[in-house]
Write a structure and sequence with these properties.
Number of helices: 8
Oligomer: single chain
Number of strands: 17
CATH architecture of the largest domain: 3-Layer(aba) Sandwich
Largest sheet: 5 strands, parallel
CATH superfamily of the largest domain: Response regulator
Number of domains: 2
Structural class: alpha/beta
Helix content: 25-40%
Shape: elongated
Strand content: 25-35%
CATH topology of the largest domain: Rossmann fold
Strand order of the largest sheet: 2-1-3-6-7
Low-confidence stretches: none
CATH class of the largest domain: Alpha Beta
Amino acid sequence: MVQAIIIEDEIHAFNHLNNIIINNYSDQIKIIGTADSVKSGIELIETNKPELVFLDIQINGGTGFDILDYFNKETNFEIIFTTGLIDYKEKSMDYFAFYYLNKPIQENQFIDVINKYFSRKSRFNLENYLAFKHQVENNNTTIAIPIGAGDFKILKLEDITYCEADGSYTTFHTIDFKSFLTSHNLAKFENLFTQSTFSRVHRSTLLNLKHVKDYSSSDGKVILTNGQTIHVSTRNKSGFMKMLKMMNYSLD
């Protein structure tokens, strides 16, 4: 039986979550305590030492991050974030390997997340947490890319000129001609950037359209703001042109 607590300051949200747990996992998850603020949440965790914490991001007295920062490296429980803030992209949370529930919590979504928790149960990872926290606090204007051995490089999206596939890896290129290799494939980042200014212009290239300076449709050549040259494939030309027109005024 997993010992769990709920830290939530909205009574309706708490009751809803608690009922879903009782209805679906009463023989696997036991709620051993509840809290509605940063202070009471810290005290509850210290006293009960739970295995699992359902943690709202915005709570009385601060945020869920304040609680996790308090425990720092001594954290030895798993977190499932609950949030009603729509700005936090589902895919970015998945990218950082965190479990999450969007409020209002749907029962089928809860079951999916909990089943994943039981199938790949792991302890809180400080590096992943710090990367996720940075992502949230910067309103998706930055990305933390894993560069090996638990290390991350924080990049501003506006500084990235393009991402280039390298087999199952991806290289990030920046405006100042630096490059960073990460062990995720290009499709992972294409899915992550669905609501940004990045567009697939070639099988191996994801381009930041904010850095397009000139484009020649005759040969598919793109000149970037730092002088670099990228080519748009014939297959991706239509989608590329459509996104350019959405971003800029056009006389066509």
